[in-house]
Amino acid sequence: MKKSLVCLVLLGTVPAVLVLGYRLGAGEWPDPRQLAVSPSVSTPAMAEGVTAGRVLYWKHPDGQPEYSAEPKKSADGRDFIPVHDDEEPDFVEAGPKAPPMAAEGGPKKILYYRNPMGLPDTSPVPKKDWMGMDYIPVYEGEEDSGATVKVSLAKVQTSGVRSAPVELRRLVRPVRAPAVAKHDERTLYSVVLRADSFIEALYVNETGRHIKKGEPLFRVYSPEMVRVQVDYRSSALSSGRRDEKGALQRLENLQIPPKVIAALRKSGDPVMSIDWPSPVSGVAMAKKAVNGMMMKAGDEAMRIAGLDPVWVIADIAEQDIGHVREGDRARVTFRALPGQVYEGRVTFILHELDMATRTGKVRIEVANPEHRILHEMFAEAEIETGGDRHERLTVPRSALIDSGNRQVVILDLGEGRFEPRPVKIGLRADDYVEITEGVAAGDQVVVAATFLIDAESNLKAALSGFTADAPAPDKATEPASPAENKP
What we know:
It is a single chain. The protein is rod-shaped and about 140 Å long. It has helices at residues 44-47, 153-158, 223-237, 241-253, 258-267, 318-321, 450-467; strands spanning 7-11, 14-18, 55-59, 67-68, 81-84, 110-114, 122-123, 136-139, 149-150, 162-165, 167-169, 173-183, 189-192, 197-202, 210-211, 216-221, 273-277, 282-287, 294-295, 300-305, 310-317, 329-334, 337-353, 359-366, 378-385, 392-396, 401-402, 407-414, 417-422, 424-428, 432-437, 444-448. It has a six-stranded antiparallel β-barrel. Strands 9-29-28-27 form a four-stranded antiparallel sheet, covered by helices on one side. Strands 11-26-31-30 form a four-stranded antiparallel sheet, with no helix packed on it. It is α+β, with helices and mostly antiparallel strands. Strand 28 and strand 29 (417-422) form a beta hairpin. Helix 3 runs antiparallel to helix 4. The protein contains seven helices and 32 strands. The two termini are 54 Å apart.
């Protein structure tokens, strides 16, 4: 029993009818050359009276990447298959477009026609390139320089191209550096007795203890201090006021506490042992006094340092030290106090660099009301440089294309036109870069998809250089009129 199978095979976008006869009993396939489609073969569309569109090109009957602009046969004698314009939607010719209107109301004047592939080839009259594509008219006001890149609006949207204005702003450049907390040297106080004395009792008997102003540090007995008090009492009982004034001056020269002098004036009896008060509040940085010892005049009994404020000494790299100024704001974080940020200001810049590390010392003063910052704590300092100075012309950091020896921004000229513009840069911040030359305030620069446009610009420049020395087309071969270019 013989059966025949009729199959419709779709080759590319062009339907072709192939009648395949297969003998199930014999298992034989017919010769493919007998199945070639000829102009006399009717397709279902033809049978229904559908008129085929214009033939765009002919392609290989087996779907191989081989095409022809004219009817052609394959190596085995089969006809190439025609491809019509209704089968290739992208090649359907649109109706004639109306020319853009000028500001006066009339149509814009056509200046010239440019190559559809972007090559530096123009024509004063309509023409086609070697692929048969029409040259694109360039109207008055649409001409651009050789550096301008034209991108379709659809491509601009799909590529995510975004623009931002060039603006004047105060550029804050953060300088970050490691730092260490130190005591404020202005709060250091050395407790020294000005007369030979004996320590009878020691109230602050440990280093690092917190001390309040007026709190007694130790009890001291000094024969010389007792003698001066006796002299003051004798001069007070006498009639000479000059002697009394001299005795009071000797008491003050020995720094006898005001409470002792007040008690002496009131009772007239000298105080034999004196509870020596702390002159300042802080922490005991050093304690040399020992209970029962004799201290010579001028010996340091104790050293006290204040806790508020503290100094934070930052090591600034040599390339950044020139941007730091006294008065710049700073934020300091300590490793031992995570999550807490302390505000401060730069109060001093040491006029010397460390030869080994090539860093400069910068002092930041930070308030420490709760005394949580301890001396010698490690910290990270961030100094805002440039914030208190004049405004600068800036662009977003993402707008700058920096290859090291070339800095470029992409100007957005509107309507899909972009122009790479070389610039000179100045101060850099986290989000913005100063532009010293190349753009003006109000210009629009591309901040997203910059490399895409820059790549198209480089490609255009490369093609321009490649075809710059190409011979000009022979005028005799150019069409004399638009009518001659029509197929």
